[in-house]
Every structure is written in structure tokens, then in C-alpha cells.
Amino acid sequence: MCPRRGVRLERLVPLVAACLLLLGTLSTIYVKSFQEQESTEFISLNGTAVSIDHLYATYSEQSLETSADETHTGIPFASLTQEAGIQDPAAHIYRIIAADGYTKEVEWKYLQNSVLTSDKRIIFAQLPKQYWVRDIVEIKVI
Amino acid sequence: MKHMRLVAGILAFGSLWGLLECSLGDFLSDAGLPSGVVLTGFVGLGLMVLSRMLYEQRGMQLGMGLLAGVLKFLHPIGGCMICSALAIAVEGALFEVLWASPRLRISRLDAGTAVGMGVISGFVLYSLGYVATQILTPMVTAAPLSLDTLPGLLPAIFSSATLAGLAGGVTLAMVRMVPSDVASRIAHLKKEVYFPTASAVAVLSWMGILLLP
């Protein structure tokens, strides 16, 4: 029994490894073809393209201290909703999308204590780093 | 005595893993390299495979992962690293599952099977570790758990996991090159040498973590 099992293991492992690499390669093709967006100096705010320079020229920067005692500086998210003309911002959930397709949905209660940094990263005072989406290309109101 | 040797091994390897996670993460990111892929495929998997080859003891790598995760979480610089800490602990647990079969003795695997296991380990540790942190972090931190976006992330996760899998294959090929007699000698060092060495590695790693800029 043992030698037969050994042979099976030697065949099975490379086969599974090859299948995983194939899955990864196909996923890469899909991501590059359909999910990735070109990173530019603009962010789409609920359908309106706004430049980072424009945001920094129009609104005041604010310092934000996170729960990990780090301090970050950027434009408050409330200014972004103002720029996008969103009525009653507290009534919505916001989908934040990065250039690589990474997406997080966040409620206003967290976003009101957040800033958008000059390198297009959103920093939350009360949420862990998993939510700090980098290289944002789009913010949708849902 | 065997248990004490194992505990000392967990302390040494787990602490070293924690130090490398704390020190290399930001450096790799700043250098534009995929830090998650490198830390999972080379560092974490490399240390777990090496320790499994030296000690041939199941359960050890789970202990290493838990210790390295705790050290990552306690690292005073870099703040809330709960996501990374959870990922490291999950990687330790996943390694135990993947390498649970007693037939998977690293020193006795042929080259193809060893590299194949490296690819599988790198791919699974990265992708399932990533998914697990997306679920566990909100639960631990009381942040909102939104699973709706997770399916959309899977292609990107699998894409990065491919690199981690390839890194894992290279790691296994390299670890396998350690001669088995050398591995056996390291694991069976005299206690007068073994325990001070293991303690020194652990303490120096902790000091390194505390002193890291």
C-alpha cells in the first residue's frame, strides 16, 4: 500500500501546483484586462473627475490621529463629499476603489474621521489599516 | 527535555520570523517590491519549512506563527498591525494543515514533489491568509464586516498568490539543499550550546523589534 500511496503523492502534488499556477495566471490576465485602472492624478468622485491638486488648492488640510497614535495629514473626507455635491452625506455608504481593484465599503460614521492624503490614500482614525485603501481611483456613493 | 528543546526552537524561529516581518515589511514596500509575497513566500514559508526539516515536529510551526504574530502586533512602531499579525498566525495554522501528512518529510521528498509543495504552500498561505484577515480583522477590531466586496477581490488575490507560489517553490528547492546530516546536527546540538544559542536568537530578535526605527 505504502509504495502506491507514495507514487500517487508524487503525481498529485505537481498536478495541484500546476493547477494553482494556472488559476493564478488566468486571474492575472483577468485583473489586467478588466479590473485594473490606470492610476492618474484624478479621482472619480461619484462620477466627477477631480484632481488631487484641485482638492489641495481648494480645501484646508487637516491632521488626523489614528487609534495607533500615528498622525497623518490630508483633506478631510467631508470636503470630498462637499466637492461632489453629495446631499446628506451621513445617509450613504461609500465604495472606495483602488487602481488595483481593491475595494472597501465604508459608512459615514468612519469616513467623517478620515483624510485623503496627497498620495491618494485614505486614512481612518477608527479603522484598521486593512481599510486604508491606497492609490484610490474612484469613490462611489451607494 | 525534548519538549524544552522544541519550546526553545519555537521561541528562536518565531522571534526571528517576527523580527523579519517587522523590519522588512516597510522596507520592501518602500522599495516597490510586493512585501506580502516576499514575506509569505520566502521569509515565513522558509522559516517554517526549515524548522520542520530540523525538528520534524508537527504543531511547532503553529506556535511559531502565533509568536511571530504577537510580536508583529506588539511592535511599537507601525501602530495597529492587527491585519498582518492575524495573517502570520493564520499562515502558521495553514502550514500545519498542508504539511499534516507524515509522508511529507521534507528531507525525503523528491525534487518535483518538494517544489510542488512549495508552490502549493506559497499560493495557499498567501491567498487564504489574505481572505482570513479580511474576515477576522473586522471581527477582532469591531470594524464593519463587508463580505460583498470579497468575491471581487479574489482574482487580484490569486494573481498575487501566483508570485507567492513561485517564491514558495524556490524556497523549498533552497531549503532542500541543506544536507540532512547538517540539519540533524543542528537539531541535536548539545544542550550547553543549543539552549544559549536559541535564547540568544530570541532575545536579540526581541531587542531588534523594540529598537527598530
Structural overview:
- The complex is a heterodimer of chains A (142) and B (213).
- By secondary structure, chain A is of the alpha+beta class.
- Chain A has two domains: 1-38; 42-141, Alpha-Beta Complex (Sulfite Oxidase, Chain A, domain 2), CATH 3.90.420.10.
- Chain A contains four helices and nine strands.
- Chain A has helices at 2-35, 52-58, 77-84, 108-111, and strands spanning 42-45, 48-51, 62-65, 71-76, 93-98, 103-107, 114-116, 122-124, 136-141.
- A five-stranded mixed β-sheet of chain A has the order 2-1-9-5-6. A four-stranded antiparallel β-sheet of chain A has the order 3-4-7-8.
- Chain A is elongated and about 65 Å long.
- The mean pLDDT of chain A is 87.
- By secondary structure, chain B is mostly helical.
- Chain B has one domain (2-211): Arp2/3 complex 21 kDa subunit ARPC3.
- Helix content of chain B is 79%, strand content 0%.
- Chain B contains eight helices and no strands.
- In chain B, helix 1 (2-30) packs antiparallel against helix 2 and helix 2 crosses helix 5.
- The mean pLDDT of chain B is 89.
- Chain A binds chain B through residues 5-6, 9-10, 13-14, 16-17, 20-21, 23-25, 27-28, 30-31, 35, 66-70, 95, 100-107, 110, 126-131, and chain B through 78-83, 101, 103-104, 110, 112-113, 115-117, 119-120, 123-124, 133-134, 137-138, 141, 143-144, 146, 148-149, 152-159, 161-162, 165-166, 169.
